[in-house]
Amino acid sequence: PILASAHENGCICLWSIQGNLVKELLPFSKYPSVPLTALCTDISTKMLLAGSKEGHVMRWSIASFLEDPQNSKNQIKEELCWRAHSTEVVDLFHEEKKNVVVTASIDGSVRLWHAMYGYYLGYFGQPRKFELSDISRLILPCDVNNFPTIIKEESKHMEKKKKFEYPLVLDRDK
């Protein structure tokens, strides 16, 4: 068993049940790290979801890591990031049978998203029924203007590193 905790600096810490730190993660983002405000997993603990103070939701694949946390080849992979609300996400959960993520924000809105692609499906209180099978139309809520970002597997920015080096290199072709 692993315990996950979200922190003010945008970091997720994974702990053993003995209280030892197993891994630290930072979300891959083009924005500076922001406080994380909500965490959840699916029932089978294959994915970890986090909500942020700025309204983003991030999804990681954690299945291979949980099978053998000591094996360094089994990495946690951030797969998806999307803007769910314009304000803080206060809660979220994954409904595995329908493959949806439900998010709640400090602004009082509760929204439904496709779990695998981050596509907006609607909000609670809307006049029409939720159409969970039709994800061909890309629509966004009125206060969000960014489509979901798929994180490429090559992105290694998720693991928190203690020291960073950024040497300057002149590239005359650019």
Descriptive overview:
This protein is mainly β. It has a domain at 33-150: YVTN repeat-like/Quinoprotein amine dehydrogenase (Methylamine Dehydrogenase, Chain H). It has one helix at 63-67, and strands at 2-6, 12-16, 21-25, 36-41, 47-52, 56-61, 77-83, 89-95, 100-105, 110-114, 120-123, 149-150. A 5-stranded antiparallel sheet has the order 4-5-6-7-12. It has a 4-stranded antiparallel sheet with strand order 8-9-10-11, with no helix packed on it. The radius of gyration is 17 Å and the shape is globular. The chain starts with a strand and ends in a 24-residue tail after the last strand.
Please give the structural blueprint.
Layout: E1 2-6, E2 12-16, E3 21-25, E4 36-41, E5 47-52, E6 56-61, H1 63-67, E7 77-83, E8 89-95, E9 100-105, E10 110-114, E11 120-123, E12 149-150
Antiparallel strand pairs: 1-2, 2-3, 4-5, 5-6, 6-7, 7-12, 8-9, 9-10, 10-11
Keywords: Repeat, WD repeat
WD repeats: 82-113
Domain IP5PC-F beta-propeller: 33-114
Features:
174 residues, mainly beta, Methylamine Dehydrogenase, Chain H, 5-stranded antiparallel β-sheet, 4-stranded antiparallel β-sheet, 1 helix, WD40_rpt, repeat, WD40/YVTN_repeat-like_dom_sf, WD repeat-containing protein 64
- Within the CATH hierarchy, at the fold level, what is the topology of one domain? Methylamine Dehydrogenase, Chain H
Overall pLDDT confidence: 81
- How is the largest sheet built, in terms of strand order? 4-5-6-7-12
Q: Give the count of helical stretches.
A: 1
| Estimated helix fraction | under 10%
Protein name: WD repeat-containing protein 64
Pfam families: Beta-prop_IP5PC_F (PF23754)
InterPro entries: Beta-prop_IP5PC_F, WD-EF-hand_domain, WD40/YVTN_repeat-like_dom_sf, WD40_repeat_dom_sf, WD40_rpt
Organism: Cathartes aura
